[in-house]
Automatic annotation (TrEMBL):
Record's protein name: CDP-archaeol synthase
Domain of life: Bacteria
Organism: Marinobacter halodurans
Residues spanning the membrane: 43-60, 122-142
Keywords in alphabetical order: Membrane, Transmembrane, Transmembrane helix
């Protein structure tokens, strides 16, 4: 489900280009003069990501509400990492190992532990595997022309 939440907006951008890609922050600046989130956090990506996790969750017989919440939390974590990167004056394409993966994985997986009743071990392993997969597959997807940046 983490892959659906975070991969579907990338596929949406690949298929739709910039059509419908209005930034969530509306181009607004924070008090430090930097963008709140940046151009890569779009309403289209949020909608596609939540829809994708809802569909995957329904296919896994976990329910639509769980899938929608999971996707929303994952993408909220992704926006949180973008917000922190902007406060650190890092451009949106700058690599920040850990910060690029942890918030978008920990939030939904922790709620999943509560909702579905799996333990902290499953939570930790899931987050770790997501981080590793993200670091391995993102450069590959970049080389294949699917991602705009290698991380």
């Amino acid at each position: 489900m983490l892959t659906a939440a975070n991969g579907s907006p990338v596929l949406g951008q690949l298929l739709l280009g910039w059509h419908g890609a209005q930034p969530i922050d509306g181009g607004r600046l924070w008090r430090d003069g930097e963008r709140v989130l940046g151009d890569s956090k779009t309403w289209r990506g949020l909608i596609i990501g939540v829809a994708a996790t809802t569909i995957v969750s329904l296919l896994m017989d976990l329910g639509g509400k769980f899938g929608a919440l999971f996707g929303l939390l994952s993408l909220t974590g992704d926006m949180l990492s973008s917000f922190i990167k902007r406060r650190r004056h890092l451009r949106s394409s700058a690599q920040a190992i850990g910060l690029d993966q942890l918030p978008e994985a920990i939030l939904p997986v922790a709620v999943g532990a509560f909702w579905l009743g799996y333990g902290w071990e499953v939570t930790a392993v899931t987050v770790l595997l997501f981080m590793l997969a993200n670091m391995v597959f993102s450069p590959l997807l970049y080389r294949l022309g699917i991602r705009r940046r290698p991380y």
